[in-house]
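dude i think i finally got it to work??
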Amino acid sequence: MKLPETETLALELREGILHLTLNRPERKNAMNGKMLVELEQVFKLADEAAGKLRAVVLRGAGGSFCAGADLKDMAARGGELESDASKRDPKTATAAGNRRFGRVTAAANDMAVPLLAVLEGAVMGGGFGLACVTDIALAHKGAKFGMPETSLGLVPAQIAPFVVQRLGLTQARRLMLTGARIDGARAKQLGLVHEVFDSTEALDAALDEVLAQVLRCAPRANAATKRLLQAVAAQALPDLSGVLDRAAELFAEASLGDEGREGAQAFVDKRKPSWAR
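look at this
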């Protein structure tokens, strides 16, 4: 597998294992447009290498997994849309940008290579969604999980099907409609993560142990097993693409509406949005 040149990801291939690190630590690895493009490319390349590539390890640089979407980047792009409104349709452009994240999450979900996540620090929004499509999730007890979209006037659009599949509808409703944050222990109770550890050293040791277990399994058999599991899961999500297309429209409407604009600006200004009490 030939690794591509990337700006927002750190990639290292060691002994058949791809270590994929989200590498925007100054933004807690929040995802901007460039990162989404690069993630989709890498996940698809990894899938093509299924049967040879043994595992993908996904984690974040600087002690945080992923703070979700980069709202400063979103606010900047919103300003560009306003200034160029006569040349492009803002809703269509916003929906297309949101839909891209759905493609990234689907590419991770569909990858026929075991996907392991090491979850530390912020695991928010889109980062929460990525955690939901991993095969094995290991977390630090101090990690903070949440979907704050509705508290920002937005919709957790592209991650919704994957969260429901991972946690069930009841827990997804509670977490999405409150924007509540949970720690590693609670994430384990809900089935989001498999194991929780008290220290980075223990987390890294557990990762080594799990990788050793994966490496005892035949790579083509693992790839075939993942394909089978995906086929089974598809019975519960028969029209995922259609759901995500509609989700992108809802996100665009919310993002470009009064609440979405106020929420993004409040985040940038580090203040509560007008509706918060």
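The chain is about 50% helix and 15% strand.
im so relieved honestly
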